[in-house]
Structures are given as structure tokens and as C-alpha cells.
Specification:
The protein is α/β, with parallel strands linked by helices and 435 residues long. The protein is built from 16 helices and 13 strands. The structure holds uracil and calcium ion.
């Protein structure tokens, strides 16, 4: 077999068989196939597409290119994944909620990069909390209290790491089968048998267009199910930040406020939608109505809040934060950005809002940048709100005067005021419903 022939086959729009795909991936990770051939292959796949069989096989071969977590002794165990956004703190709400309803969650999360935040950075803003657990400790924590959220410990999906870096520099990222196989290979390797996906769409998302987000969701759900995992997805809005807090400690405080029943809103709505589908996939709930009743009970009784406290304790964190958020890191300077014109908030540039948090020090531009857990901002107006001259738009939390001004100038350009508006759809659709 020659890589040349596999490239030519895809260039000519023919279907690859399993052997072709395995030859490519296995050869590439062993560095027997050079980057220039891999690049040509990626461009051919980008232009001519991959069908379901090809995509599933590519996903499976990438998943088994490194270590695979064996979670079988945990029985039914769930994972959730968001394609990434701003103020997307659903993991910190969904995990304790479904755990409190008896569903185990073994979640391996990522760090923030670019304009999107990362669950691990948020959790590490809790004093003492660790996200680097060994596999044995991770498994026994899930067994004991039902949930754990950690960073990847093993060498998972090296093929995806190599290919993603190559796609990044060869203009081949934005391909639905390539994105789907990249994300799902990591989900398959993380070992859970239930996979709940939140595919974001809008100005702060990877897939700005809802139709493409829907296609990506359909493809990922098909891959998951064909690979023997119970998989479902929602397509949800990221045309504005999901919650009101942007920044690591601020987002943890918001999650605690949601779990304490102090605030509702879009963040809770999307969290409940994800959690409800997870309980259905696990057959813990018969249908959405049943699931919602269970989840609201866990919320109102504060059992979900206490479950979050148990997870914090188990991972070395100060559990008192769930009752007293003043124990979370706080920024030195709080300054408010006021409106200098009037109208109805029609649109936000959600990606730029995420970038503004990065300017304050809440995120990374490069993988090894150090973040400041305390900084960020609170959003005071959402799409559809009326804005009067002088109204508060953003409450900025910073530790550096110079950065405040820079971020405020940037934030000012992130919102559009006109004289008419309609609120965006929050949840565009579901893929794979429960009975
Ligand atoms: N996220 C991933 O993990 N892979 C992609 O290809 C795109 C987004
Ligand atoms: Ca993420």
C-alpha cells in the first residue's frame, strides 16, 4: 500500500476503505508518512468530504492511536462536551445536577485557549482544588461520590494532536467530518458510554452558522452511536455569552449562584436541557418531563449544590466556597463601563467579548500563558434589552489599571444598538430524543 494511492483515491472522490484509513493514521503517527502527504490527504478530504463509514472509521483509528480509558467497572458513566464558547459554565452545573440524580460522570476537560474558557481553569480558581488526578484516584472518586472532573492524564489521541496542528496551518480545520472525527475520537478514548454534546452556534462559536452546527451535531451523534456509545446533542446559541459572568472565579461564583437557586436564566436553561437528555440516555428518567422533575428536585433541595461541594472536597478544594463565595479569588479593581448611546441591544460580537476577558488576563493566547483567576467581567445587558444613556453595560474586574482601559475600549465595540431587536433562539434543536 502506498500513501500516494490513498491521496489519489480521495482526490478523485472515491470511497476509502478501512485499510486505507488505518494505513494513513498508523503511518502518520509513526512518522513514516511525511507532513506533506498528510497535508495533501487532509485537503482532498476537506474538498471531497468523507462519508459516514469513512468518518466513523477515521474516528475509531484516531481514538485507538494512544491510551484509551477503561471505565467498564464503573458501569453506566456519562461525559458531556461543549464545542466551546464564552461564559459557558454548563459543566459545573450539569455534572453535580446529574450526579445528584444518580448518574455517574467521569469527565476529562480542557483548558481555555483563544476566546473560549476552559473548565479546568475555572475549577482551579477554587482555592486548593486540583484537576490532576491519577487514573486510579479518578475512578475511585467516581465510584465513591458519582463524579469527577479532571484534565487528561494519559496519552490520548496522539493522532488527533498531530493532525489538528497540521490542519491549523493548512486551512483544513473547517470541515465537518474532520471536526467531528477530531472531537469524537477524544470522546471515545475517554471511555464513557454516554456522550452528551452541546454544539454551539453564533458569533462566539466555532460554527457560526446554525445549519452547519446542525450538520456537525448530526455527524457526531451518528459517529457516537455507530461506535456503540449512546450519543445525543443539542445545538445552542453562542451569539452572546451564555452566562453573565466571564472569567474563571467569576464563572465559578455564577455556577454556585445557579446551584443555590439564586439566579436563573439561559445558563440554567441550557444546563437543564443537557442534564435532562443525559438522564434519558442513561434510562434514569423515562422522558424529558420525568427528567426535569428529578433535576428541579435536585436543584431546589440543594442536593446538586452539595454534590458540587463533595466533588470540590474530593479534589482538595475549599468546599466552604459553596456557602460563601467571598472565599473565591477577587480582583483588586472593579470599574463599570457605561453606555454612551441609546437603543436596543441587537447583537454582540461574542468572540470579541471572550477576547476582552483574555486581555484582562483571564485567558491564554499561547498554551503556556499564565492566567489570572480573579479577572473578567459581569455582563449587565443582554440581546433584546433596552439601553439608556449611562446604563451599566459591563462591570469589569481587573488587577491592572492599564488592562482595564484596553479591555473597556474593546468591549465598547462588541455591542450593537439599533431601534429594533429580537432575542436569539437559545436552543436550535436536539439530535436523538428520548421516549
Ligand atoms: N475542536 C476539536 O477538538 N477538533 C476540531 O477539529 C475542532 C474543534
Ligand atoms: Ca471547553
Amino acid at each position: 500500500m502506498r500513501m500516494y494511492d490513498i491521496i489519489a483515491k480521495k482526490r478523485d472522490g472515491k470511497k476509502l476503505d478501512n485499510k486505507d484509513i488505518a494505513f494513513f493514521i498508523n503511518g502518520y503517527i509513526k512518522e513514516q508518512i511525511p507532513d506533506y502527504q498528510a497535508s495533501a490527504f487532509l485537503m482532498a478530504a476537506f474538498l471531497n468530504g468523507l462519508d459516514d463509514d469513512e468518518t466513523v472509521h477515521l474516528t475509531k483509528v484516531m481514538a485507538s492511536s494512544g491510551d484509551m480509558a477503561d471505565l467498564r467497572e464503573l458501569g453506566t458513566v456519562a461525559d458531556k462536551h461543549s464545542t466551546g464558547g464564552v461564559a459557558d459554565t454548563t459543566t459545573l452545573i450539569v455534572v453535580p445536577l446529574v450526579c445528584a440524580c444518580g448518574l455517574k460522570v467521569a469527565k476529562m476537560s480542557g483548558r481555555g485557549l483563544g476566546h473560549t474558557g476552559g473548565t479546568l481553569d475555572k475549577l482551579e480558581s477554587i482555592p486548593g482544588m486540583s484537576v490532576s488526578l491519577e487514573m486510579n484516584a479518578f475512578m475511585s472518586q467516581v465510584k465513591r461520590i458519582g463524579g469527577a472532573v479532571i484534565g487528561q492524564t494519559m496519552n490520548m489521541c496522539p493522532a488527533d494532536k498531530m493532525l489538528y496542528a497540521l490542519r491549523d496551518v493548512t486551512a483544513t480545520v473547517e470541515s465537518i467530518p474532520l471536526i467531528a472525527s477530531s472531537i469524537m475520537s477524544k470522546k471515545l478514548a475517554s471511555g464513557s458510554n454516554i456522550i452528551m454534546l452541546d454544539v454551539k452556534t453564533g458569533s462566539g462559536a466555532f460554527m457560526t452558522d446554525p445549519d452547519n452546527a446542525q450538520k456537525l451535531a448530526n455527524t457526531m451523534v451518528r459517529i457516537g452511536n455507530m461506535a456503540g456509545r449512546k450519543t445525543a446533542a443539542i445545538i445552542s446559541d453562542m451569539s452572546q455569552p451564555l452566562g453573565l459572568a466571564v472569567g474563571n472565579s467569576l464563572e465559578v461564583i455564577e455556577a454556585i449562584d445557579v446551584l443555590s437557586g439564586r439566579i436563573q436564566g439561559d445558563l440554567l436553561t441550557v444546563s437543564l436541557s443537557l442534564a435532562s437528555r443525559m438522564l434519558c440516555l442513561a434510562n434514569i428518567a423515562k422522558n424529558d418531563e420525568d427528567a426535569n422533575a428529578m433535576l428541579l428536585e435536585a436543584l431546589h433541595s440543594k442536593r446538586a449544590l452539595h454534590k458540587f461541594g463533595e466533588i470540590i472536597t474530593a479534589q482538595g478544594g475549599n468546599t466552604n466556597v459553596i456557602h460563601d463565595t467571598s472565599l473565591m479569588p477577587h480582583a483588586r479593581i472593579i470599574s463599570t463601563l457605561h453606555a454612551k448611546s441609546e437603543g436596543i441591544l441587537t447583537a454582540t460580537d461574542c468572540k470579541r467579548i471572550g477576547e476582552a476577558a483574555g486581555m484582562l488576563g483571564a485567558g491564554r493566547l499561547k498554551k503556556d500563558d499564565i492566567i489570572d483567576p480573579a479577572v473578567g467581567f459581569i455582563i449587565k445587558k443582554r440581546i433584546g434589552d433596552t439601553v439608556k444613556y449611562g446604563d451599566e453595560l459591563f462591570e469589569v474586574h481587573a488587577n491592572d489599571e492599564n488592562k482595564i482601559e484596553e479591555a473597556m475600549k474593546y468591549l465598547e465595540k462588541c455591542i450593537t444598538l439599533t431601534n429594533s431587536a429580537k432575542s436569539p433562539t437559545l436552543i436550535y434543536g436536539l439530535v436523538s430524543s428520548c421516549g
